Give the backbone structure.
Amino acid sequence: MKQLRTPIVSVLGHVDHGKTTLLDKIRRTRVTAKEAGGITQHIGATEIPIDLIKQICKDIWNVKVTIPGLLFIDTPGHKAFTNLRRRGGALADLAILIVDVNEGFKPQTEEAVSILRTFKTPFVVAANKIDRIPGWQSSEYAPFLKSWAQQDDFTKQKLENKIYELIGDLYRFGFSADRFDRIKDFTRTVAIVPISAITGEGIPELLMILVGLAQKYLEENLRLQVEGKAKGTILEVKEEKGLGITCDVILYDGTLKVGDTIAIAGKDDVIVTHVKGILKPRPAKEMRVESKFQSVKSVTAAAGVKLVAPNLEGVLAGSEFEAVESEEDIKNFRERVKKEYEEISIQTDEEGVVLKTDTLGSLEALINELKEIEIPIKKAEVGDVDKRDVVEASANRDELNRVILAFNVKLLPGVEEEAAKYGVRIFKEDIIYTLLDKVKQWREEEKLARE
Ligand code: GDP
């Protein structure tokens, strides 16, 4: 059997529902057993090796293991999810949707669910903050089942009611919930794990289900097979003292070596450069040493590293890169990136709304969502709204389509005046779900008014 790489996990959810606390809790996990090995700190990510996960889950472990561990991307949130691209979709292989069980679904939860549905990313719902349920008796780091056994019936009932509410909310978005071992299609059915990111209750089950999910679902989809050629996604571009402009990246396929030539999808064109250095964080016990980083000669997916290379000025966070060996490779990469953009963006002469978004990821997500609610699209592309967009929207015969949807982009000077003149409506929002909701509502009102 082929060696599988570490799955990349992203945490999504509404603000304050506990994304950061959960990642911190996982990062601080210490297990006494020496053989388990510790957590590996990456640049922009944290890896929990499978032996450590086994230790954390020891009372409940029932999985046959094929993956080396789980790599959690340190930046939580749906923005990170839609902006970090890899070939044909989102960078993360799977996700945790975190919901404060006492509050239930909120706008960003709804947005996150829409995004997960669009990208067909399998996920687990973490019903967080169970320790806040009145009467709940917490126990540090216990499996949820152990914690559950010590609650009184009244408290159990309260949690059950909250979980039923969550199931109802998921159902509104086309998801059903079931017991993990009965789930066949993880892009339609989800498991819900009650947890507390503060006490750690339920985290063993959460990790175990993530491992099971990766192995059952991602393995089948060949998503975890390493092909060989180094491929990755840029997390962040930043100036580092003494190093110049560097890129924090997640390598999701292959092995990258110092000296390799890489092509990066830049803002206007592909950037070609040579890897001068690959840096990893220095282990904590060596922190006395001047630099935060240590140099390595090569790195194998999945991993988070910092790349030192010339010509990184034009690189955008979220772009993908690939190791290239010849002019032919560069040409192929350039064509593929262009094709992907063309495949995602839309330009027609048909009736339909105009859509402008900030990134390719959000464009892809919104196009899919609009299709789902049967709103036709005339034009969809990345960029600010300009006067041309107004002209195109105004060319629609049906007033319902004389609309511009602006997601997380600016209206350039003169656009608003032009829109008023031509009777074009502009909806400008920075939450996908809110944008869709407003447009849908407006269209329905207009239709009613016509009858
Ligand atoms: P984020 O915005 O989703 O990253 O949310 P944070 O992780 O920053 O959490 C928001 C607040 O909720 C913080 O004050 C946390 O301490 C608190 N919090 C997060 N998880 C839990 C939990 O499981 N139980 C309790 N009682 N508080 C929590």
Residues 13, 15-21, 76, 128-129, 131-132, 196-198 surround guanosine-5'-diphosphate (CB under 6 Å). The chain has a mean pLDDT of 90. Residues 153-172 form the longest helix (20 residues). The first strand starts at residue 8 and ends at 13.
